[in-house]
Design brief:
The structure holds 2 protein chains of 2 kinds. By secondary structure, chain A is an alpha/beta fold. Chain A has 10 helices and 14 strands. In chain B, helix 2 packs across helix 3, helix 5 crosses helix 6 and helix 11 packs parallel to helix 12. In chain B, strand 16, helix 11 and strand 17 form a beta-alpha-beta unit. Chain B has 3 domains: 72 residues, 2-Layer Sandwich (Dna Ligase, domain 1), CATH 3.30.1490.20; 127 residues, D-amino Acid Aminotransferase, Chain A, domain 1, CATH 3.30.470.20; 149 residues, Succinyl-CoA synthetase domains (Rossmann fold, 3-Layer(aba) Sandwich). Chain B is elongated. At the A-B interface, helix 1, helix 4, helix 5 and helix 8 of A face strand 7, strand 8, helix 4 and helix 9 of B.
């Protein structure tokens, strides 16, 4: 078992003919992900790596039964691509595109809620259930199937953590890169609940960073709803002030957002926080023994 | 991106939000002429892209004719948080009774635009948020509906009791929302919004920040950008696909991904070193990016060692390795380099680097420790 993606995932790649889209479509397919179709308006009828390309998401879904879509289109077009996937009945959309205007995402959200479409991203590295499906730009070779669920606001830091886990023989059920944009899809609370409900996940790693109050909210949620052990890491402990939090975030969350506050919030609810990435495996071993 | 108060108020005016009569002045003579035109008293306000102008002495009331050249002369050229004051706003003095705060921003949790309103205007709103969060009313705006008349009234009723003010406020708030949406703002504020002696609402100050991701479709806003020297360097980096922030230490860093870059800086500090910069070479890479990144790091003369920490996802390690090799061929690098490559195509990348005889380490902890060691020797 795992969350969100597995062997039943039928993946569509939006923007499959671009440099990144074609490269990662090939990588995902090579990993064993069931990549059933690509979309690139005007290039319908062609193929990339043996994957059939369609002009619209609707055509691709009709022809292949795709249920999950990954988006590689340029940022100005990303919101429209997300809407197109949602309209065509795609259940889970993963938006890799970086630099999407915030108000585009604000406008997209109510439609996704109405259609019941789950979104991860934008500006995220995707997710993986090792040995089942890799949806994103994550390097598949560093993952190991196992029982630790991992979620992170950052891309490469996720790889770093996974590398530490795998090197220590700790496998993963699913690893989710949530993305770092101000307005994003599924976040800590939803994913925590999914890991809590997933029988294959025994412990959870949460990787946060400075800014906003998502970690503080996650800590509160863990206290109330999560019985599985959780360990955490917060990036940005040495970040210079003023370069980090927008004025706006500070107002909304009443002054939270620093690494110290986030670490404190976790420790108060019994979540162990690693000082440096390489401490994570030991912390996990400690909490999983109990 | 940020703009000056006077530019924000020019945008407010275009949407018929009442603002003070005012003139932007670059010299003392211009300020004197402006005061003559507007009539005394006038408020002289430094126009810099930093907060806390008042506390820094950048906002003064000129009551007499003689005050104007004296105060304008003091403020022009003043340094406020690293910004030199090159222009002042000379604004007509206004008599008012109460001060309010209103603002719009994006709320991560509701994934919506929210309207913030408070009767405690005229002071720094961050202070209010900290000391008395209940004094700030927040209203989530449905993006499909926009700021509806009823919600605008609800906000106005939270601030005013006089129905005449409620009507004015509701109208003004809807205009403010339209500005926010039309310009891809990330923050729009009026602080303070005041009630004049005539019983009219007036924007005494204004502030606007914009979403950098949307500037591609906001050319009129982008044209207002006045980057500082450091920001120019950061902008130049951004055009090359790099995110660069200069710091004060001596260990130059090249990392892919913001989170890993932050964690790399944390790690250097943890082991007792001082990073010289934050540099994220971003997602999809080509060798040219690495060359540009190397040039950028070495443009800082404090750099004694360069630590490269790459974990390939969309970034291919072989691209980074090739870029590094050609960077080393093209530019003279006389500081040691420590490289750590993992992830996508790392085997190919490490193979390429072997030829260049660079010190390669396996983990980022080792890389940080090695960099600190080399920094001490150099």
């Amino acid at each position: 078992m795992s969350i969100l993606v597995n062997q039943n995932t039928k993946l569509l790649v939006q923007g499959i003919t671009g440099r990144d889209g074609s490269f990662h479509a090939g990588k995902m397919k090579a990993y064993g992900t069931n990549v059933v179709a690509g979309v690139s308006p005007g290039k319908g009828g062609s193929a990339v790596d043996g994957i059939p390309v369609f002009n619209t998401v609707e055509q691709a879904v009709k022809a292949t039964g795709a249920n999950t879509s990954i988006i590689f289109v340029p940022a100005p077009l990303a919101a429209d691509a997300i809407l197109e996937a949602s309209e065509a009945g795609i259940e889970l959309v993963i938006a890799i595109s970086e630099g999407v205007p915030t108000l585009d995402m604000v406008k997209v959200m109510p439609y996704l809620a109405k259609k019941g479409t789950k979104l991860i991203g934008p500006n995220c590295p995707g997710l993986i259930s090792p040995d089942e499906a890799l949806i994103g730009i994550l390097p598949g070779n560093i993952f190991l199937k196992g029982n630790v669920g991992l979620m992170s606001r950052s891309g490469t830091l996720t790889y770093e953590m996974v590398y530490q886990l795998t090197s220590n023989g700790i496998g993963q059920s699913t690893c989710v890169g949530l993305g770092g944009d101000p307005v994003a899809g599924l976040y800590f609370l939803e994913i925590l609940q999914m890991f809590q409900d997933d029988p294959a996940t025994e412990a959870i790693v949460l990787i946060g960073e400075i800014g906003g109050d998502a970690e503080e909210r996650a800590a509160q949620f863990i206290k109330e709803h999560v019985t599985k052990p959780v360990v955490a890491f917060i990036a940005g402990q040495s970040a210079p002030p003023g370069k980090r939090m927008g004025h706006a975030g500070a107002i909304i969350s009443s002054g939270s957002g620093t690494a110290e506050e986030k670490i404190k919030a976790f420790e108060q609810v019994g979540v162990k926080v690693a000082k440096i990435p390489s401490e994570i495996p030991d912390l996990l071993k400690q909490v999983m023994k109990k | 991106m940020k703009i000056h108060e006077y530019q924000a108020k020019e945008i407010f005016s275009r949407y018929r939000i009442p603002v003070t009569n005012e003139v932007v002045c670059y010299t003392v003579d211009e300020a004197v002429a402006a005061a003559e035109k507007l009539g005394l008293p006038v408020v002289i306000k430094a126009q810099v892209l930093a907060g806390g102008r008042g506390k820094a002495g950048g906002v003064k009331l000129a009551r007499t004719k003689a005050d104007v050249p004296e105060l304008a002369g003091k403020i022009l050229g003043m340094d406020i948080k690293g910004y030199t004051v090159e222009k002042v706003l000379v604004a007509q003095g206004v008599k008012f009774s109460s001060e309010f705060y209103v603002g719009l921003t994006i709320d991560r949790n509701s994934k919506s635009v929210i309207f913030m309103a408070s009767s405690e205007g005229g002071v720094e709103i961050e202070e209010v948020a900290k000391d008395n969060p209940d004094a700030i009313h927040k209203f989530v705006i449905d993006p499909d509906l926009g700021l509806t008349p009823f919600l605008a009234r609800k906000i106005a009723f939270a601030l005013f009791t006089d129905f005449n003010l409620v009507k004015q406020g509701a109208d003004l708030f809807q205009k403010l929302y339209r500005i926010f949406m039309d310009t891809d703002s990330s923050l729009v504020e009026i602080n303070p919004l005041v009630i004049t002696e005539e019983g009219k609402l007036l924007a005494l100050d204004g502030k606007m920040n914009f979403d950098d991701n949307a500037l591609f479709r906001q050319s009129a806003i982008e044209a207002l950008n006045e980057p500082t020297e450091d920001e120019l360097k950061e902008l130049d980096a951004k055009e090359k696909g790099l995110t660069y922030i200069r710091l004060d230490g001596s260990i130059g860093c090249m990392v892919n991904g913001a989170g890993l870059a932050m964690a790399t800086l944390d790690l250097i500090k943890y082991f007792g070193g001082e990073p010289a910069n934050f540099l994220d070479i971003g997602g999809s890479s080509n060798p040219q990016k690495v060359i540009d990144a190397m040039n950028l790091i070495l443009s800082d003369k404090n750099v004694k060692v360069v630590m490269i920490n790459i974990f390939g996802g969309i970034t291919r390690c072989d691209d980074v390795a090739r870029g590094l090799i050609s960077a080393l061929e093209k530019i003279k690098v006389d500081v040691p380099i420590v490289v750590r490559l993992s992830g996508t195509n790392s085997k190919e990348g490490l193979e390429i680097l072997k030829q260049a005889n660079l010190p390669i380490v396996e983990t980022m902890s080792q890389a940080a420790q090695k960099a600190i060691e080399l920094c001490g020797k150099n």
